[in-house]
Amino acid sequence: MPITIEQARAFEALAVTGTFQAAAQQIHKSHTSVLHAVRTIEEQTGLEVLDRRGYRTRLTPAGERILEGCRKLLAAERELAGHCEEMRTGWEPRLGVVFDGVVPPAWVLAAAGALVRAGAPTRLDVRAEFLSGVEEAFNRSSADLMVTVLPPSNEAVRAFALAPLPASLVVHRDHPLAQVGRASADELQKHVVLTVRGSDPRLVLPTAALEPRSTIHLQDFATKRAALLEGLGFGWMPDALIGVELRAKRLVRVRWDGESRHRFEPRLVHRRDVPLGRAARLFADVLQKIQKKRASG
Q1: Is 94-163+265-296 in the same CATH topology as 5-88?
Q2: In the chain, what are the domain boundaries?
C-alpha cells in the first residue's frame, strides 16, 4: 500500500519538530493520529523509520530515505494545488509561444510584459525560430501560440491575420549595388546574397528567381543586419528592424529591375481543440494591438 499524503505530512512534521506532540500541533492533528500515521508507514514498508532510544525522536537511515520521498510527494501536492488554483482563476500554468524572427522581438517582449504587469502566475516560454522552423517548434514543444509568416500546414489550427510587415531589399551605401542607377537581374546575381536560415518554398520573394554567385546563411536578422552594415552583400530585411539605418542612409534600398519592397503576412495561430487560457488571450490581444500600431506607424 502506498504512503498517503496525510501520512507523509505527519512524518515530515515529526522529522522537523522532533516530538509527536509538536508534530501534531504543527499539522493541527491529534497526538494519536501522528503516532498512527508513523506506525502505519512502518507496517506498510516493513522498515523501522524511527530510532526511539533517546528522548528526542530521530530518524533511522531508512527513515531519512523515506522522508525524501515524502517531501517529494508533498511538493507534488503543493504544485498540483497551485495549478488548480491558477486554472480556477483562469490563468494557465504555462504559456508556450513560438514566433518568427522576422517579427521584431520588442513587440513580443511588450506582450510578455503585459502578463508581468497583470500579475499572471503563468510560466512563460517564448522562443524565436525562422520560417518552417516556427511550425516545427510549435508542434514539437506543444506551444500554445505561434506567429508565422508561412501558411500553416496543419489544418487543426486557427490562424488570424496580423498587420503586414513591410520589408526592403537593402545593401550598404558603399556597396557596388548602391552606386548603380538601376541594376539588372544579371548584375544582382554577381553579388553575395545574405539570408537567414530556414528558407521555405512557401515564402516567395521578388528575388526568388535569381541565382546569385554565392549565398551566406545567417543565424538571425540581427546577424544579417550586421553583415549588411559590413557591406558583405545584399538581402531582405523587415523595415521595423532597420529603421534607424535607413533614416541615416547607412543602408539603402537596392534599385533593380524587380521589386525592392515586399510585405510579410504574419499570422497568429493556435490549436482549434485547445481553448486559450487567460494568459494566452491577453498575450494575443496585446501583441495584435502593438503590432498593428507599430506596423502602421
Answers
A1: no
A2: 5-88, 94-163+265-296, 165-263
- List per-block mean pLDDT (blocks of 10 residues) for the chain, which spans 297 residues: 88 88 90 91 90 79 92 88 76 91 88 92 90 89 91 88 92 94 89 84 82 86 95 94 95 93 92 88 91 67
- DSSP structure string for the chain: -PPPHHHHHHHHHHHHHSSHHHHHHHHT--HHHHHHHHHHHHHHHTS--EE-SSSS-EE-HHHHHHHHHHHHHHHHHHHHHHHHHHHHTT--SEEEEEEETTS-HHHHHHHHHHHHHTT--PEEEEEEE-THHHHHHHHHTT-SEEEESS--S-SSEEEEEPPPEEEEEEEETTSHHHHSSSB-HHHHTTSEEEEES---TT---TTTT---SEEEEESSHHHHHHHHHTTS-BEEEEGGGSHHHHHTTSEEEPPBSS-SEEEE--EEEEETTS---HHHHHHHHHHHHHHHHHHH-
Q: Does domain 5-88 have CATH number 1.10.10.10?
A: yes
In this structure, CATH architecture of domain 94-163+265-296: 3-Layer(aba) Sandwich (3.40)
Distance CA 211, CA 169 (A): 16
Identify the CATH assignment for 165-263 out of 3.30.70.20, 3.40.190.290, 3.40.50.300, 3.90.930.60.
3.40.190.290
pTM for this model (two decimals) = 0.69
